[in-house]
From TrEMBL:
Pathway: Cofactor biosynthesis; riboflavin biosynthesis; 5-amino-6-(D-ribitylamino)uracil from GTP: step 3/4; Cofactor biosynthesis; riboflavin biosynthesis; 5-amino-6-(D-ribitylamino)uracil from GTP: step 2/4. GO terms for molecular function: 5-amino-6-(5-phosphoribosylamino)uracil reductase activity; diaminohydroxyphosphoribosylaminopyrimidine deaminase activity; NADP binding; zinc ion binding. This is Riboflavin biosynthesis protein RibD. NADP(+) binds at A157, W173, T199, G299, G300, A301, L302, A303, A304, S305. It catalyses: 5-amino-6-(5-phospho-D-ribitylamino)uracil + NADP(+) = 5-amino-6-(5-phospho-D-ribosylamino)uracil + NADPH + H(+); 2,5-diamino-6-hydroxy-4-(5-phosphoribosylamino)-pyrimidine + H2O + H(+) = 5-amino-6-(5-phospho-D-ribosylamino)uracil + NH4(+). Zn(2+) binds at H53, C78, C87. It comes from Pseudooceanicola nitratireducens. Transmembrane segments: none annotated. The keyword Thylakoid does not apply. The keyword Zinc applies.
Length: 368
């Protein structure tokens, strides 16, 4: 098969894998396409909760027709026995003749062993095609596997001059309905939505995905050293229905801890550095629970701490054509920078109009 055809079918596998983003953690969101004589026999992507895996779903569609087919998979097929048998063995048993996958799985239980199993069974294995696109799709899974933390996307919706509210706290709405709808779509593609305690107290947010017809909701994470959050707010009232995880200091008031646990929240003790929760400890705690992709929506202190610690992988800005002035609330807290050379820098990926606003998407140079 030609490189152009390989690229076309592998691109389809990648797009299928993205359908699972936000729903497969702690497993990667993988896509698989089975093709023979130019005809698609089966398609699959990782199911919610991480299983069945993409290859198994595609093989179930193809049935006996999979024998002699090419499998296009967006990540190396797994090689270990977990809650399900290895996908590499499933492909071998199905009699596929060739596997095309862009890159190796960084999970030490796999990490090249899946490809070795396939080659040992006489299956042709082709790797490297669309490597960068696949690495981008799986960056959160790789970060958790290699560094123990999830990928962090920081979203800042601001006025033209970088403010998120007037001096009186009026903020609804700086950006328009199209931008707000885009935020819900971004939430849907992440495992969790995260805010700081100040934002939770000031806005009483629900942090759910709305108006997109979805049944699944991301985990809602609040970073609060003292757990000084309203026990009657939206998060507290819905903690038993939609997961709420609270990252807090280890010296938190046991009465507050018991109250939140009684409401159904999951509590994650984290380290305190300089009087504030250590963002590294927070992300390590979230990674230990299985999260691979976190969508942070502020507030300013949390956003600044993540940026200062070089923990923001992607930066999403939504800028409105309104000017608030210096007395308005800034989108970021103090970062203590003395020189411009110390400031975190990001590379522009895309920028486009979005309704009456501008959406711009940035990535740090050391992404992934």
């Amino acid at each position: 098969m030609s490189t152009a055809q390989d690229r076309r079918f592998l691109a389809l596998a990648l797009s299928l894998g993205r359908r699972g983003q936000g729903r497969t953690w702690p497993n990667p969101a993988v896509g698989c396409v089975l093709v023979k004589d130019g005809r698609i026999l089966g398609r699959g992507w990782t199911a919610p909760g991480g299983r069945p895996h993409a290859e198994v779903r595609a093989l179930a569609q193809a049935g006996d027709a999979a024998r002699g087919a090419t499998a296009y998979v967006s990540l190396e097929p797994c090689a270990h026995h977990g809650k399900t048998p290895p996908c590499a063995q499933a492909l071998i048993d199905a009699g596929v003749a060739r596997v095309v996958a862009p890159l190796t799985d960084s999970d030490p239980r796999v990490s090249g062993q899946g490809f070795e199993m396939l080659r040992a069974a006489g299956i042709e294995v082709s790797t490297g095609l669309m490597h960068d696109a696949a690495a981008e799709d799986h960056a959160g899974f790789f970060l958790r596997t290699e560094l123990g933390r999830p990928l962090v996307t920081l979203k800042l919706a601001t006025s033209f001059d970088g403010r998120i509210a007037t001096a009186t706290g009026d903020s609804q709405w700086i950006t328009g309905p199209e931008a707000r709808r885009a935020v819900h779509a971004m939430r849907m593609r992440h495992d969790a939505v995260m805010v700081g305690a100040g934002t939770a107290r000031a806005d009483d947010p629900s942090l759910t995905v709305r108006d997109l017809g979805v049944s699944h909701q991301p985990v809602r994470v609040v970073v609060s050293r003292r757990l000084d959050l309203a026990l009657t707010g939206q998060l507290a009232r819905t903690a038993a229905q939609v997961p709420v995880w609270l990252c807090h200091g280890r010296d938190v008031d046991p009465v507050l801890r018991e109250a939140w646990e009684g409401l159904g929240a999951t509590l994650l003790p984290c380290d305190v550095v300089g009087g504030q929760l250590d963002p590294v400890s927070v992300l390590q705690a979230l990674g230990a629970e299985g999260l691979t992709r976190v969508f942070c929506e502020g507030g300013g202190a949390l956003a600044a701490s993540l940026l200062a610690a070089d923990l923001v992988d992607e930066l999403v800005g939504m800028s409105a054509g309104v000017v608030i002035g210096a007395e308005g609330l800034p989108s970021l807290g103090a970062m203590g920078l003395a020189r411009l050379a110390e400031a975190p820098r990001f590379t522009l990926r895309t920028g486009r109009p979005l309704g009456g606003d501008v959406l711009h998407h940035w990535r740090r140079a050391t992404f992934g």
